[in-house]
Amino acid sequence: MATYTDDELQQAASRLREIYDVQTRSERLRTARRFGYESKPESRLRIYRRLTRGRAKPFSRFPATEFLNDYVLRFDQDVLDNDGDELVLNGKIPPYSFSQNMMIVSVVLIAIRRGSNETTFVETQINVNPFFARDYPDRGIKETPKKKRLDPMELLKAYQERIREMFDEPPTEGYERKAFAFTDRGSEILSEAYNEPVPELDKVELGAAFIPTSARYVDDKRQPFIEQKPTFRPFPKARQERIVRYVNRAYPQLKRSGRL
Fold first, then answer.
1. Using alpha carbons only, how large is the chain's radius of gyration in Å?
2. How far are the Cα atoms of 47, 59, 95, 109, 151 from residue 156, in angstroms, in the given order?
3. Which of these, 208, 65, 187, 62, lies nearest to 125 by C-alpha position?
4. Structural domain contains residue 1
5. Burial (0-12, 13-18, 19+ Cβ within 10 Å), 174
6. 138, 84 Cβ separation under 8 angstroms
7. Separation of alpha carbons 72 and 186, rounded Å
8. Cα 124 from Cα 205, distance rounded (Å)
9. Which domain holds residue 245?
10. Residue 26 resides in a domain
């Protein structure tokens, strides 16, 4: 029997989640049977889904940039191909759930119009913290349902909505927002499109991260967040080898076919 390191098993679990996301229902049923599950269809689907679901550790922070496009244009900008949908999210689905209430912090570059039609870039931080882990009666705020606040996609959708709102906000100090870059690659693309150099950033780099809305304290001292991506539950020992072998074979095939 082959032995695998924890890193290899985590990578296999992450890739299995990617495979799961692109499979049809019938493909998922066949895959579950290949893993040795012979129960009723709904039971097989439920077990397979559990194998592909990770969970963030409490008080950990981890990247969110991988779920964002490199940039987004306001619906009326034609410097690049633009379908007008103002899509911030790239369609990838986080293969895990949160273990506590989280928010998104990000450093982005905004292309703004200044003057008649002059474009320049400004760096800014955009944080989105839309959910509540308890009631605040004095403020008329009710607790966000647990299912919603522990779902990363719900938080990502709220982030996308905030960016769209910023496009719609009246110009302040004569500045009109035309585009956002969420990655260094996105800033390079917008710089070339608008023919305007990108300024040297004050922050380390562009990007976004998930962080908890509450911190852990020890002896009245705030503890730093753990820098760790969510982990996946271990594969059942009796099925571990056949699952990993399947992933190592199927993942490259789906990559080559363009489904991943």
1. 22
2. 26, 19, 13, 18, 9
3. 208
4. no
5. exposed
6. no
7. 9
8. 11
9. 6-53+234-257
10. yes
Per-residue confidence at 189, pLDDT binned at 50, 70, 90?
Answer: very high
In a domain, 42, yes or no: yes
Among the residue ranges 84-93, 117-126, 166-175, the one predicted with the least confidence is: 166-175
Average pLDDT, stretch 26-49?
A: 95
Same domain, 13 and 125: no
Looking at this protein, which amino acid is placed at residue 5?
Answer: T
Q: Which two tokens stand for residue 129?
A: 């913290």
Q: Tell whether 27 and 76 lie within a shared domain.
A: no
CA 198, chain centre distance (Å):
25
Reported as a pLDDT band with limits 50, 70 and 90, residue 47 is very high
Q: Are 126 and 75 in contact (CB under 8 A)?
A: no
Does residue 217 sit in the same domain as residue 253?
no
Bridge partners of residue 113, in order along the sequence:
119, 176
Q: Find all residues with CB under 8 Å of 119, minimum gap 6, and list them.
A: 111, 112, 113, 178, 194, 195, 196
How many domains would you assign to the chain?
Answer: 2
CA distances from 248 to 8, 11, 26, 44 (A): 11, 10, 21, 21
> Is 80 exceeded by the pLDDT of residue 116?
no
Q: What distance in Å separates the CA atoms of residue 203 and residue 249, rounded to the nearest whole number?
A: 41
Q: What is the pTM of this model?
A: 0.82
